[in-house]
Every structure is written in C-alpha cells, then in structure tokens.
C-alpha cells in the first residue's frame, strides 16, 4: 500500500536496444530537487532488498528526488534470461535508464546502487563521457573478483550438503567458466561472459568524477568503516573525489533469510541527500 501523501509508483517497460526493461518510477513530490536511478544487487540479494529499495525510493520522492527503480537484463520482471546477461549489457541498461529519467525530469541524474549494483554504478561513472550527478552507494562491493569467489562458494556449499566434495574449490569452478561452461549456482545460471565482467570490476581503478555518498551498515554504533572499504575511500580522496561516508546501525537486510528493515540507513540517506541539495 502506498503511504498517505505519496503517489503510487508508475510501472512500465523501458525500451532499450537489448530489449524491454521493467521499471518503477517514483515521481518527485513538489519541486524536483534531484533524480536517481536505482541499481539492484546480484541474484537473491535483489529479492531480499526489494522492500528497503521501495521504502527509500518513497522517502526520496517525498523530498523531491525522482527515483527510477530498474530491473536489469534477466532480473526481476525484465526481459531476457539471467544466463544471457553480461556486465556490459547491464551497463547499457543503466545508461538507457539514466537517459530516460534525465529526459523525463529535465535535469542530470545520479546513480544509487546496492552491493554489486553499487559497483555497477561506479563502473558506469568511470566509463561514461558525462559523469552522473552523484553516486549513492549502499554497502558497495569494491572488488568483483572477491565477490565472484563468494558466489562460487555457494555452489561448493550446495555440493557438500548433497554429500559431494568441493570438486577442487573455486579454482576448479573458475576453470569451468574459462572453458566456456555456464554454472548453475543457487538457482541462477552464471555465464562465462557475466563472470568475466564481474571478475574484472575494481572500484579502485579510477575515482568517479562526481560527488559520492558512501553508506555502510554497521552492527553497532561507533564501528568504523571496514578496512577494505576505507582503503577505497582513501584512494578516491587522494585521486580528487569528494566522498562522504555515512554509517548506519542495523541488520544486513540484503543477506537476511527473512525480510528485515534498516530504518537508520533510510534516515541517514535521506538526511545526507537533503544536506547535499542545500550545499
């Protein structure tokens, strides 16, 4: 149900050169103060995060920030099979979504990404001839190769639960991908093309040329930014990026087996974008 004072989201299919992509558009309430394209996380993390993405999109729309929630190729209600998706194809989806909302609202748009979606947002910002207005990064994955290894371990864990062995570990699975074999992992068909794109993605490669809000969920107040994240933030700052870090206490909702909320993250994000709009 849509909260009082909020218009319902507009659902539609965005035509792209690679096929239709399902979108939900949350129009800004009152004067438009900004625009964002939301890039969801990978595989099952997407489903576990849908509620948080919807809650934050509504909160931002109430602040006058239009938000376009995009389902990438093969994900959610978009056309295509997950097994046919590629990193470059997902970047084309993002570019098309950004062009749509910029045309719709008549202003530049930023990108809001969660987990691997945040790394996709960074990759777009690194490659795009005109950088996005801003990046809003929720719990960003910073190194694709490490994330790919984590996903491959789900396959190994499934084999062990079925009484098998680890079959040579992640290196053996990587060898299968390099040989052109797709892998079935946790109900998702991982293609060699998509695996290669994830594996090569590195947030440290080039500092994005736009303001960045880095939002990290921590287990308890006073916890610092994790070391790997802190190293990327420091590298970007040395390269000239303007990075603001926001820490929010709460659960890792993208990994929880049941739907959970993180209201502190929504509050921190809304406050950060309100302040940046008035800066």
Distance between the ends? 34 Å
SSE ordering? EEEHEHEHEHHEEHEHEH
Number of strands: 10
Helix count, DSSP H or I runs of 4 or more residues: 8
Instruction: Report helical residue fraction.
Output: 40-55%
Oligomer: single chain
Shape, principal axes of CA atoms: globular
Q: Which structural category do the helix and sheet elements fall into?
A: alpha/beta
Sheet-strand content, in percent, reads 15-25%
Give a written overview of the molecule:
The chain is of the alpha/beta class. It is 41% helix and 19% strand. The chain has helices at residues 44-62, 87-105, 116-127, 144-161, 169-178, 192-200, 227-238, 263-278; strands at residues 10-14, 21-26, 34-39, 65-70, 110-114, 135-138, 183-185, 188-190, 212-218, 243-249. The protein has an eight-stranded mixed beta sheet with strand order 1-2-4-3-5-6-9-10, sandwiched between helices. Strands 7-8 form a two-stranded antiparallel ribbon. Strand 9 (212-218), helix 7 and strand 10 form a beta-alpha-beta unit. Helix 2 (87-105) crosses helix 3. The longest helix has 19 residues, at 44-62. It is globular. The model has no long low-confidence stretch (mean pLDDT 93).
Detail the topology: elements first, then pairings:
Blueprint: E1 10-14, E2 21-26, E3 34-39, H1 44-62, E4 65-70, H2 87-105, E5 110-114, H3 116-127, E6 135-138, H4 144-161, H5 169-178, E7 183-185, E8 188-190, H6 192-200, E9 212-218, H7 227-238, E10 243-249, H8 263-278
Parallel strand pairs: 3-4, 3-5, 5-6, 6-9, 9-10
Antiparallel strand pairs: 1-2, 2-4, 7-8
Helix pairs in contact: 1-8, 2-3, 4-5, 4-6
């Amino acid at each position: 149900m849509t909260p009082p004072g909020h218009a319902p989201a507009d659902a539609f299919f965005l035509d792209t050169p690679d096929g239709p992509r399902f979108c939900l558009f949350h129009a800004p309430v009152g004067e438009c103060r900004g625009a964002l394209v939301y890039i969801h996380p990978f595989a099952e993390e997407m489903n576990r995060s849908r509620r948080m993405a919807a809650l934050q999109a509504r909160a931002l729309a109430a602040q006058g920030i239009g938000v376009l929630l995009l389902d990438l190729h093969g994900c959610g209600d978009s056309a295509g099979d997950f097994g046919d998706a590629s990193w470059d194809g997902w970047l084309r989806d993002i570019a098309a979504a950004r062009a749509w909302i910029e045309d719709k609202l008549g202003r530049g748009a930023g990108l809001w990404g969660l987990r691997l979606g945040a790394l996709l947002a960074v990759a777009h910002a690194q490659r795009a001839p005109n950088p996005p207005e801003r990046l809003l990064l929720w719990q960003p994955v910073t190194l694709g190769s490490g994330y790919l290894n984590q996903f491959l371990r789900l396959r190994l864990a499934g084999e062990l639960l079925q009484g098998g062995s680890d079959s040579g570990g992640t290196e053996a699975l990587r060898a299968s991908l390099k040989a052109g074999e797709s892998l079935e992992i946790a109900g998702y068909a991982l293609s060699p093309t998509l695996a290669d794109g994830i594996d090569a993605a590195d947030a440290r490669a080039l500092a994005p040329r736009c303001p960045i809000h880095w939002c990290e969920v921590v287990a308890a107040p006073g916890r610092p930014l994790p070391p790997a994240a802190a190293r990327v933030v420091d590298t970007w700052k040395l390269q000239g990026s303007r990075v603001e870090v926001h820490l929010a206490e709460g659960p890792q909702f993208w990994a929880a087996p049941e739907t959970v909320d993180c209201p502190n993250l929504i509050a921190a994000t809304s406050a950060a974008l309100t302040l940046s709009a008035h800066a």
